[in-house]
Write a structure and sequence with these properties.
The structure is a homodimer of 344-residue chains.
Chain A: H1 4-11, H2 15-23, H3 30-43, H4 49-56, E1 61-66, H5 72-88, E2 91-96, H6 102-111, E3 119-123, H7 129-137, E4 142-145, E5 153-157, H8 159-172, E6 178-181, H9 190-206, E7 212-214, H10 220-231, E8 240-243, H11 246-258, E9 268-273, E10 284-287, H12 290-306, E11 314-317, E12 320-323, E13 341-342
Parallel strand pairs in A: 1-2, 1-3, 3-4, 4-5, 5-11, 6-7, 6-8, 8-9, 9-10
Antiparallel strand pairs in A: 10-12, 12-13
The structure holds a DNA duplex (30 and 30 nucleotides).
DNA sequence: CGTTCGAATGGAACCGTTTCCCTTTTTCGC
DNA sequence: GCGAAAAAGGGAAACGGTTCCATTCGAACG
């Protein structure tokens, strides 16, 4: 393995000059720079990142902490982050912090303390006080996607707005019996669900309609189970369902099909996410594009790294309504033609 | 930030002794070791990983390269890897290498060359010659989950066996018109699909049955589309479907439902994976447990790191048949009772 | 034409560990 | 009780970069 000293010797300059030539910092004659670069390339020289980190204090690595890897939302965010980092030449170190596990404790107490990164992206963490304390103790910029208690930069969907918009859509179609399906539970974390539920409740109340909330585990099978339960009882059955997320909504659609309830003619279903399966199930939904949330957060963090005076901003994204074929006027309504398409 | 020198001073020993006490290498009196550890803990000392890496040449970090993050199989493998690494105190650096992208080229040519890891896990990569060359040029141990051309350690499902077992299951139920649904296409990479197809073909041929293969994109919507096409034509319709993976199988089940073809009474469907949705759709399938494949690969790699003489082994996992309610004897057969349960 | 300033470069210190090598102390077998 | 070997610990040299500081040289400016 050849070091910078070998490159310097081969190029006939000092280590100092070679370093300047390769990093682009400080004065170096154009001809020299070019020669050093060529020699380095020919020798297949690759700088040691540990040595560079030790000398500069920067790692060119970003840490990402998330509670789940195998859920659609998180995987999409991760891909977005990865895409931007790849382009910027940063590495990405992943920390898995499942709520309530011993592993999570170690991530916060040991792994993160090692500071093997210049900045941190927290995705859908809902850190408790101790965890939050550890996070600030690290002394590196933090940006989060979805909630985090403190004043770090945050990129998130405006969940309340999304739920309001979805509810409004159903009301405009003529529905009055609209049930919210979802949980005060995990998934992207309780805060998300609370905000969505609250958006639904407010909109219903403002319209003078009755609020009905059915709990469901936040997952496809969870939505299925909850919907089977709810729809199986004709007395309780609403004409429309607002699900806390697409997975729950799709579970509900599958349940309705199995129960022989046609969607959307007898039952409208709307979700929030625009999950990759949404199109397949013709699901009307509010798009939240986690991928671009990840990209956004990353750009924000990188910006903060290169100019530390830059204040962390909060970005709130307004979901776009995508109308597909899972929503229609309630049964027994004078037919209203609803186009399939996208509106904001 | 306090360094080891501060700790040494506070504990009244030399840097050398402090280092030995903390790392556990070399002779240190028990009392001294304990004192140094206590002082270090009180001061909140955290060793600089760059400095340690520079000195030792080891990073305590593992690189993971995969082409997709948001597909079930890959996400599960990743979680398995993460779990083992977390326990062993290793960091995990993730590299996203989508086939045919500029990003992938950079991963191989730039990112991996930086060697910020002690070993590498390649998941479902099917590297071309140039990429393979780069991989060995790194000079670090590599373990792969699913195919990789060369002689690195490999952990993978025995795909051929899985397909044979699935086919046998259908034949035993009395089916003779069995169509393979799947693609020579991406997903976990072409090799996987070829092996599964081949297992199906051989078993059919051995049983004297006719092979029929319908291509499908390897995804849920892909399976749906292909099945709609196939099942829509009564002349071509088989009594059983073997899908290359569960996502395709589930797509097919959804298609069958929509076409009013009852599963399993009129059509049996079997998949391979035991995907998280399999249970919900009562899908009979062969379990491949990507999570434990990831764990397995990681343990293999770590073992190799601590004892470099250890030869990389190839591990081939035999899938377990899980019988649910998507398979039954073909229509018009004297009824055979099939228990729901697990067999090997 | 002397002074000043910027460009270009080299020497050496430094980043924070680990580890080699050497000295001193202890232990243990005979 | 002695010698050898093992245990304990210290000083200093790595590891491979970056960057401060000093030096030289040439050009621009008054």
């Amino acid at each position: 393995m050849s070091g910078i000293e070998d490159v310097a010797r081969a190029a006939g300059v000092s280590k100092a000059t070679a370093s300047r030539a390769l990093t682009g910092h400080g004065y170096v004659a154009a001809a020299t720079r070019e020669r050093v670069a060529r020699v380095a390339h020919e020798m297949g020289y690759v700088p040691s990142s540990s040595a560079a980190s030790l000398a500069t204090g920067r790692t060119r690595n970003i840490g990402v902490v998330m509670p789940y890897l195998n859920r659609w939302f998180f995987a999409e965010v991760l891909e977005g982050i990865q895409e931007v980092l790849l382009e910027s030449g940063y590495d990405l170190t992943l920390y898995d912090a499942k709520p309530g596990t011993e592993g999570r404790r170690r991530v916060f107490d040991d792994f993160l303390a090692r500071k093997r990164f210049d900045g941190l992206i927290a995705v859908g963490l809902e850190p408790d006080d101790h965890e939050l304390e550890r996070l600030v103790a690290i002394g590196r910029p933090v940006v989060s996607v979805v909630a985090i208690g403190d004043n770090a930069g945050v990129v998130r969907l405006d969940d309340e707005y999304a739920a309001r918009r979805a509810t409004t859509h159903l009301i405009e179609l003529g529905h009055t019996k609209i049930t919210f399906l979802g949980g005060v539970s995990v998934s992207s974390g309780p805060h998300v669900d609370r905000a969505r539920l609250s958006g639904y409740q407010r909109t219903m109340t403002e319209a003078g309609l009755t609020v009905t909330h059915v709990r469901s585990e936040v997952s496809l099978p969870g939505g299925y189970a909850a919907a089977v339960d709810l729809l199986g009882d004709p007395a309780r059955r609403p004409t429309a369902l607002l699900a806390t997320c697409d997975e729950v909504a799709i579970g509900a659609i599958i349940a309705a099909r199995r129960l022989g309830i046609p969607v959307p003619s007898a039952l409208s279903v709307v979700g929030i996410d625009n999950h990759e399966f949404a199109e397949m199930f013709s699901l009307t939904t509010l798009e939240q594009s986690p991928r671009s949330q990840g990209m956004h957060a990353t750009q924000m963090l990188l910006g903060q790294l290169e100019d530390p005076t830059q204040v962390p901003q909060d970005v709130s994204i307004q979901a776009r309504l995508i109308v597909r074929n899972s929503t229609a006027p309630p049964p027994g309504t004078a037919s209203v033609t609803v186009g399939v398409g996208v509106t904001s």
